[in-house]
């Protein structure tokens, strides 16, 4: 009987972790597995996970492609990008 209770808790935490991970723009299945294997820790990790939507963005000066701030080489034109001043960045899509 103790194994059945753990299975129910693992499935519920897996579903909750998957929903939180999916809401932050990641894969439901990957977060479900993390939450089912590590029930409480997986849920905490999903809440602490930073989603891609809140990452600041900038434009490539050569081709004008919108890129995340952490991208160092433009995938479209191959320009090596320097870290821009704060005035040239804009908040990610979640803040618009």
Write up this protein.
44% of the residues lie in helices and 6% in strands. It is built from three helices and two strands. With 96 residues, it is mainly alpha-helical. It starts with a helix and ends in a 28-residue tail after the last strand. Helix 1 packs antiparallel against helix 2 (28-37) and helix 1 packs parallel to helix 3 (39-48). A two-stranded antiparallel sheet has the order 1-2.
Secondary structure blueprint with pairings:
Layout (H helix, E strand, L loop, with lengths): L1 H22 L4 H10 L1 H10 L8 E3 L6 E3 L28
Helix pairs in contact: 1-2, 1-3, 2-3
Rg over CA atoms, rounded to whole Å, is 19 Å
Number of strand segments: 2
How would you state the average pLDDT, rounded? 85
How widely separated are the two ends? 50 Å
Enumerate the spans where pLDDT stays under 50 for 5 or more consecutive residues: none
Strand order in the sheet with the most strands? 1-2
DSSP helix fraction: 40-55%
Taken from the alpha-carbon principal axes, the silhouette is rod-shaped
Order of helices and strands: HHHEE
Determine the strand fraction and express it as a percent band. Answer: 5-15%
Please work out how many helical segments DSSP would assign: 3
**Estimated structural class:** mainly alpha
């Amino acid at each position: 009987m103790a194994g059945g209770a753990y299975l129910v808790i693992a499935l519920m935490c897996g579903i909750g972790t998957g929903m939180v991970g999916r809401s932050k723009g990641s894969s439901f299945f990957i977060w479900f597995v993390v939450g089912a294997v590590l029930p409480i820790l997986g849920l905490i990790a999903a809440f602490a996970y930073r989603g891609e939507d809140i990452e600041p963005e900038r434009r490539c000066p050569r081709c004008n492609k919108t890129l995340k701030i952490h991208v160092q080489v433009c995938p479209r034109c191959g320009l090596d990008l320097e870290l821009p001043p704060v005035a040239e960045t804009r908040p990610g899509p979640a803040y618009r």
